[in-house]
Amino acid sequence: MADLRSDFLGIKSPNPFWLASAPPTDKEYNVRRAFEAGWGGVVWKTLGLDPHIVNVNGPRYGAIWGADRRLLGLNNIELITDRPLEVNLREIRAVKRDWPDRAMVVSLMVPCDEESWRGILPLVEETGADGVELNFGCPHGMSERGMGSAVGQVPEYIEMVARWCKAHTRMPVIVKLTPNITDIRFPARAAKAGGADAVSLINTVSSITSVNLDTFSPEPSIDGKGSHGGYCGPAVKPIALNMVAEIARDAETRGLPISGIGGITTWRDAAEFIALGCGTVQVCTAAMTYGFKVVQEMAAGLAQWMDDAGHADLAAFRGRAVPNVTDWQYLNLNYVAKAKIDQDLCIKCGRCFAACEDTSHQAIAMKEGRVFEVKDEECVACNLCVNVCPVEGCISMEAMAPGTTDPRTGREVSPGYANWTTHPNNPMARAAE
Fold this sequence. Notes:
Layout: E1 6-8, E2 11-13, E3 17-19, H1 28-37, E4 41-47, E5 61-65, E6 71-76, H2 85-98, E7 103-108, H3 114-125, E8 131-135, H4 149-152, H5 155-168, E9 173-176, H6 185-193, E10 198-201, E11 205-207, E12 210-212, E13 217-219, E14 229-232, H7 237-249, E15 258-261, H8 267-275, E16 278-283, H9 285-290, H10 294-309, E17 337-341, H11 351-359, E18 364-367, E19 371-374, H12 384-388, E20 395-399, H13 427-432
Helix pairs in contact: 3-5, 5-6, 8-10
């Protein structure tokens, strides 16, 4: 079997699957159940110094569902832990004592002054925890108090606090980044400049999931009022993958360890994050949807795929996708593909035809007997038909061989690598000539 063991910043765990800082890691009972189910580590729900944290006692979550009622996204308005600091610290110590082989990282959020960080870090260190995660991502409630994403959106603050923490603790320091920012590279660079050992991302996306059209209140509604919250779950995975990739390939942060977060629900999701350079993956919504034992399917699936692909351990494929992430201007413009429909799999629903005819390039013909065929002379390989087809594998994109003629343009498909920086239609390229 493939070796799933993880060594992230010297923090060892039997697998890379960690529970993210969230309601599932709020207390000893939950975390023990998680470790019993097989999770490799946890990030304990965010601790703070304010003894007056009060969470709402009404609905805390809003949701987005697919047509089959599958949960696609959760919006939450829950704050950091409202349990006493000393209780959390006592429970962290007890769990780490009994589960020494599991990763125990503690999430922290305190006011943006050095004394507050200097005060809480030794308390966490005394528990035997393996590391701390600085919560610079929470977009609601705490950000209005000058913490969470209010810090994470200012690179100078990130660098400053990271430097304080590195000065006042022996533990590895992970900076959790907010996605509610224009360019994720700047806060990541600031974390590295401040001496942070790693970054984790993404935290939740600021959002309102829906509005109740009877009460005209955003959901979740508390006594007729609603607030923006943090959005997570499968729907945010594409945002997370892109931001992870930007940090992994940035010249200034390349090599900075990353813990990936954002919509990880299956082993395949985890493999994709690791392929983009993540050392561990953190999960929340999947555990809240399916329970803690979902990790067993994730771990078994990842191990099976690694065995089949010949990857002996996580390092064998970690970061393998990073060199293949590039800017649009460097894409090969000589590459040509065409859609192909497998008539044996086609159920004649016509969705590909409707989508292409109405909104794309009129490249699919409907013939007698509702037989759908691609018109190569019109197909631009946009992939829309593949994405709307309800039958997996029915429509595929097939690359044309170099030397053949593209029936749409009449040009020969070239094996050469042309991109926009040298393309004759690029005004900048013409000007250089």
